[in-house]
Write a structure and sequence with these properties.
Leucine Aminopeptidase, subunit E, domain 1, single chain, 8 helices, 286 residues, 7 strands, alpha/beta
Length: 286
């Protein structure tokens, strides 16, 4: 098992997935002006589509927040090439501000434990902890991983999910796979974990969580992926106990490694220190 921490260029705050403090002062005045104009176009385009009336803020950071909020509530519909070009340019600028794409270290031995922002991780596929609607988080600026992944990938991701699902909902344990768009990852595998309401998962819910990992792996194998990064499915917003969820994740992957002749490199991506400690303990057991 290999342990790797994300770059110090991106400082994390526990419980705020997808949020970062950016250094905006290295940009030239001309680039900064072009970027502001670009963001203003994106904001006004989406406000027009969603029939939203609001003042466009003056600062770059406030513009970024408003753009993300508008993306979070966007109803799937057609998008112009001009908008997509402008949106993609902004999202690539945001990725570069976070330090750019990052590898999961030396991955000669799987599984790998990696702590950092999954939207920076350069693997063939990352796994998204989705909701049953499968279209991303609709709460503006929410701190969940679903919101972070959709916000970093761009609106093409919600549109592709919409086209795949065609009005149906994802059952617990189900998964779909899409392109990654503005993410460093080629694909995103969206899966719905069980929601724990009382802190005590049932045997059925434990089997459902195991099914999430199994179905994601099958989809990755079918797509010919050589590396897959799993987030901590069902913890956080879905309240699955962290240690039990990690134990199911590790046991399921190790069982699959014994079943298949060849599996993609597996990366267990964690964001919070508590999850890092749990996975580190589980992966270092004899």
């Amino acid at each position: 098992m290999i342990v790797y921490h994300g770059s110090d260029k991106y400082k994390h705050r526990s419980g705020t997935a997808g949020r970062a403090t950016y250094d905006l002062f290295e940009q030239s005045d001309a680039c900064r002006l072009d970027r502001i104009e670009n963001m203003d176009f994106c904001i006004r385009y989406l406000m027009d589509q969603e029939h939203v009336e609001a003042d466009v803020p003056s600062t770059l950071d406030d513009k970024r927040r408003l753009l993300r909020a508008l993306m979070n509530v966007w109803q799937p519909q057609s998008l112009s090439d001009e908008f997509l070009h402008a949106q993609d340019s902004e999202l690539q600028a945001q990725l570069n501000e976070k330090g750019g794409p990052e590898n999961a270290g030396d991955v000669h031995k799987s599984p790998v434990l990696w702590q950092g922002d999954i939207t920076r991780l350069q693997v063939d596929a990352i796994v998204n902890a989705a909701n049953s609607q499968g279209l991303g988080c609709w709460h503006p600026l929410h701190g969940c991983i679903d919101n972070a992944i959709h916000s970093a990938a761009g609106l093409q991701l919600r549109r592709e999910c919409y086209n795949i699902l065609n009005g149906r909902k994802l059952a617990t344990g189900d998964a779909i796979i899409t392109h990654g768009y503005n993410l460093p990852a080629k694909y995103v595998i969206h899966t719905v974990g069980p929601i724990i309401t009382d802190g005590n998962p049932t045997k059925k819910q434990e089997r459902e969580l195991e099914l999430c990992y199994t179905n994601c792996m099958r989809m990755a194998i079918d797509k010919g992926c050589h590396s897959v990064a799993f987030c901590c499915i069902s913890t956080g917003e879905f309240h699955f106990p962290n240690h039990r969820a990690a134990k199911i994740a590790v046991d399921t992957i190790l069982k699959l490694q014994n079943t298949y002749d060849s599996l993609p490199i597996i990366v267990f991506n964690v964001f919070k220190d508590i999850d890092y400690d749990i996975y580190h303990e589980l992966l270092n057991k004899d």
